[in-house]
Design a protein that fits this description.
By secondary structure, the chain is mainly β. It contains 1 helix and 32 strands. The N terminus and C terminus are likely disordered.
Length: 384
């Protein structure tokens, strides 16, 4: 019996399989992770005449819709699928605080001196409350009350059904020089926490607004602001100041547990034993949550990063003068990026179920993105 043809055939098959496995391995290792634009549209009702507007409000996912406020002319509701406008409520001088949805109402502070409750279905006014200054602080709702700060150093507690004031705290600030912006307040149990532009971080009694304790954090000669939104874990509050420090405070006393020279005006992100934060020096860092020690540091190329968003295992940030960037949470390595053409100062918003996320650019444009690997056909050997 002649076995040579069988041996020859076996040799050829082995060679083909080996080559195929090698090509497949090369293909797998050479995949590129990308951020792809699905659609983009303007959030502005008319052309911005050219002067600076601060588009910093984080988009809000509401079911299959997207709520977006801009710093030019108001707030609108859009379809996530294609970006089509559902309704638009115009607010003179726009909005720079994050809107919040509670039931069938939208709550947002305007730059026109009013705080609004809008109907989610059509954007009509349910009630409005005169704050007589810009509503720069993003609202937080707890029980039947909404809490927020304004640009003139005032903290409000309003009834969400009627818009009537529960209490008001006015902070007397000596210096007229401060950084534009204000973070969210933190509500925990019977206590409300907020930072102010004179460098103090204060705990209030939720029912009355009475001061429980106050702690001076920032002693900078020029900018003393504590504008970042505080984050709570256990008995520890994490908050940043414009002295470039990130602080860990005891929530009961305000005593400083540790401070790290890696802070900015943005809200930090806690994941497991780490705290992630952008810095005012254009860096992005991972710190040990308990000690504040640096784990890794990455230098960004396009200015100061937004507050980070955790999305599908990555950290997504916008650069103030650069791109939307996906970073590895392991070491800060840049995995993918997309240039919006104008930079991004608003925090990135993930979709609730799909592998999409949304961004509002400095130019007031809304972007829908999808993250993933490039198509396989782009990597087969015969396509190169």
């Amino acid at each position: 019996m002649n076995t040579r043809p069988k041996i020859f055939l076996f040799t050829i098959l082995t060679l083909l399989l080996t080559t195929s496995c090698s090509s497949l391995q090369e293909y797998t290792q050479s995949q590129t992770f990308v951020i792809d634009k699905q659609w983009a549209r303007s959030s502005l009702s008319s052309i911005n005449p050219g002067f600076f507007k601060n588009h910093v409000a984080e988009p809000v996912v509401v079911g299959s819709k997207l709520l977006v406020a801009n710093g030019y002319d108001g707030i609108g509701l859009y379809k996530q699928r294609n970006g089509r406008e559902v309704w638009k409520f115009k607010i003179k001088r726009g909005v720079e605080s994050n809107p919040i949805v509670n039931g069938d109402k939208v709550f947002v502070g305007g730059n026109d001196g009013y705080f609004y409750s809008l109907k989610l279905s059509n954007g009509k006014v349910a009630w409005k409350f005169p704050i007589r200054f810009e509503g720069l602080g993003s609202p937080i709702i707890q029980d039947e009350s909404v809490y927020f700060t304004t640009g003139n150093h005032t903290l409000y507690s309003l009834n969400i059904k009627t818009g009537q004031a529960n209490w008001t705290y006015i902070r007397k600030v000596d210096s007229s020089i401060s950084v534009r912006g204000q973070g969210e307040v933190l509500v925990d149990g019977d206590t409300v926490y907020s930072g102010f532009s004179d460098g103090y971080f204060i705990a209030f009694k939720k029912s009355t607004g009475a001061v429980i304790w106050e702690k001076k954090l920032n002693s900078n000669r020029r900018f003393k602001d504590i504008d970042s939104s505080p984050v709570l874990f256990g008995d520890t509050i994490y908050v940043s100041g414009y002295d470039n420090n990130l602080y860990a405070l005891n929530k009961s006393t305000g005593s400083i547990l540790w401070q790290s020279p890696y802070g900015s005006h943005t809200k930090a992100l806690l994941i497991n034993d780490r705290i992630y934060s952008s810095t005012s020096q254009g860096e992005f860092v991972a710190l040990d949550k308990i000690t504040g020690k640096l784990i890794w540091k990455a230098q960004l190329k396009g200015g100061i990063a937004t507050s980070p968003t955790y999305f599908k295992g990555f950290l997504i940030v916008g650069e103030s003068d650069g791109q939307v960037v996906a970073l590895s949470q392991v070491n800060g390595e840049q995995i993918a990026s997309f240039d919006t053409g104008a930079g991004v100062k608003a925090k990135i918003t993930p979709a609730q179920k799909e592998a999409h996320f949304f961004a509002l650019s400095k130019g007031g444009n809304i972007f829908k993105f999808k993250m993933g690997f490039k198509k396989a056909s782009e990597f087969w050997p015969w396509d190169n």
